[in-house]
């Protein structure tokens, strides 16, 4: 019996040979797992730090570019005079490019405009009261009646001003439009020089007289449009 066999044991429990079995120290798996986690965290922290540095330098570059553009140093900074096309200049009001007052516009006097006041709502007496007030403001009054079927209960705004096309017709409608807000402008093939005011559902009253007079003044003598460069020095 081998000296390695404990006393009283034999048979299949018998240990043969004259060497002790090699004993290995058990591996510490916990230490390996912790080391792996620490490595992953270090790599992640390093990557995050790199991204932060990139963001910082990128942000400084963008801020500098924005500052230069605001001061007029950017390549995309242009003046209105250079940016405007010939077509846009043609559409400007007279004097807008130079910043000087525009040429006064000749508008018809209110006493030369004949207005037909038509009521498209269910409120009775509305056409009559409106016509009386327009008359006090200098307009000539024509027909005062209910609106035709094409407008009956179909005008949701304050009203519709209707007249003949052409330069004179447009001028008359502009003058009448200063007397109320939220109004639509339309044209028809009428031969006369009168205009229609079709009162709509949103109508409450005419614009205050002082406001209407101010609107007429602005219409006749347009203010200059701002010009120059958008970029500060």
What do these coordinates show?
- This protein is of the alpha/beta class and 233 residues long.
- Among the domains are: 44 residues; 111 residues, 2-Layer Sandwich (Alpha-Beta Plaits).
- The chain is 37% helix and 12% strand.
- It contains six helices and five strands; from the N terminus they run αααβαββαββα.
- It has a five-stranded mixed beta sheet with strand order 2-1-5-3-4, covered by helices on one side.
- α4 links the parallel β1 and β2.
- The longest helix is centred in the N-terminal third of the chain and has 42 residues.
- It is elongated.
- About 12% of the residues have low confidence.
Count of helix runs: 6
Content of β-strand: 5-15%
How far apart are the termini?
107 Å
Shape: elongated
The computed structural class is alpha/beta
The CATH class name of the domain at 110-220 reads: Alpha Beta
Contiguous runs where pLDDT drops below 50 for at least 5 residues: 72-100
Widest beta sheet: strand line-up: 2-1-5-3-4
Mean pLDDT value? 75
Within the CATH hierarchy, at the fold level, what is the topology of the domain at 110-220? Alpha-Beta Plaits
In the CATH hierarchy, the architecture of the domain at 110-220 is: 2-Layer Sandwich
Helix content: 25-40%
Count every beta strand, where a strand is a DSSP E run of 2 or more residues. Answer: 5
